[in-house]
């Protein structure tokens, strides 16, 4: 079973998590033999967190409760509050998970947080434009590894820009192996384009009785 830890912090950018958490939680497009997935929200404490969209989230667990294992995946969303020193604890967990071979996924402002502790200095990655990380993370030294794409997967590190949430989700789902390859391709094409033919292609890839397409 995979445990997906979603770090939640004040001013969290709600939209960046939408595609991936809805699919991993619902399992509506999972293949029949997909591994089980458990989704948990993680906070610095269990105190309520208020997102950029005004939603209130009560974290399921605290940072020190994260199980550092190859079957763990950590999602770090964008937010305007990553510069708060208290988030150093989750960044340390990210470093431990990467070292073990577990997957860490960061988008938008979270990429700057990783850059600030040197985790992007020697690995292919992306963010909100080539100059963004230098501007907000003075210690960043990974310019030669920067790739100007919406989302970049480098083995167990997946980074994305603020506009790369859909591709970021696709790369995470692919890493977990919970969709059939043709299902994932049709899912991505449909949400990229909105074209009905991709929706029908997606429906045709599903095992009979597996979820719904709401």
What report would you give on this structure?
The chain is of the alpha/beta class and 214 residues long. The protein is 33% helix and 17% strand. The chain is built from seven helices and nine strands. The strands form two sheets. A seven-stranded mixed beta sheet has the order 5-2-1-6-7-9-8, sandwiched between helices. Strands 3-4 form a two-stranded antiparallel ribbon. Helix 1 (18-26) packs parallel to helix 5 (165-176). The chain is globular.
Q: Can you give the helix content as a percent range?
A: 25-40%
> Quick one: overall form?
globular
The CATH class name of the largest domain reads Alpha Beta
- The name of the CATH architecture of the largest domain is 3-Layer(aba) Sandwich
Task: Give the percentage of residues in beta strands.
Answer: 15-25%
Q: What do we call the CATH homologous superfamily of the largest domain?
A: Class I glutamine amidotransferase (GATase) domain
Number of helices: 7
**How many extended strands?**
9
Question: Helix/strand-derived class?
Answer: alpha/beta
Radius of gyration: 17 Å
Mean pLDDT: 95
Query: Segments where pLDDT lies below 50 for 5+ residues?
Result: none
Major beta sheet summary: 7 strands, mixed
- The neighbouring-strand order within the major sheet is 5-2-1-6-7-9-8
Order of helices and strands: EHEEEEEHEHHEEHHH
| CATH topology heading of the largest domain | Rossmann fold
Distance between the termini: 25 Å
Number of domains: 2
């Amino acid at each position: 079973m995979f445990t997906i830890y979603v770090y939640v912090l004040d001013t969290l950018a709600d939209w960046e998590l939408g595609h991936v958490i809805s699919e991993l939680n619902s399992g509506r497009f999972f293949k029949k033999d997909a591994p089980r997935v458990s989704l948990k929200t993680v906070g610095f404490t269990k105190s309520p967190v208020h997102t950029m969209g005004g939603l209130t989230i009560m974290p399921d667990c605290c940072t020190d409760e994260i199980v550092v294992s190859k079957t763990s995946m950590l999602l770090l969303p964008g937010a305007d509050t990553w510069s708060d020193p208290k988030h150093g604890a989750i960044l340390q967990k990210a470093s431990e998970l990467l070292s073990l071979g577990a997957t860490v996924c960061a988008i938008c402002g979270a990429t700057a947080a990783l850059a600030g502790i040197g985790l992007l200095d020697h690995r292919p990655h992306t963010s909100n434009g080539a100059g963004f990380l230098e501007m907000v993370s003075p210690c960043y030294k990974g310019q030669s590894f920067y790739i100007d794409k919406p989302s970049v997967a480098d083995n167990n590190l997946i980074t994305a820009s603020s506009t790369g949430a859909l591709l970021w989700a696709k790369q995470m789902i692919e890493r977990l192996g919970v969709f059939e390859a043709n299902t994932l391709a049709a899912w991505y094409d449909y949400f990229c384009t909105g074209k009905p033919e991709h929706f029908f292609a997606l429906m045709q890839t599903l095992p009979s009785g597996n979820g719904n397409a709401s």
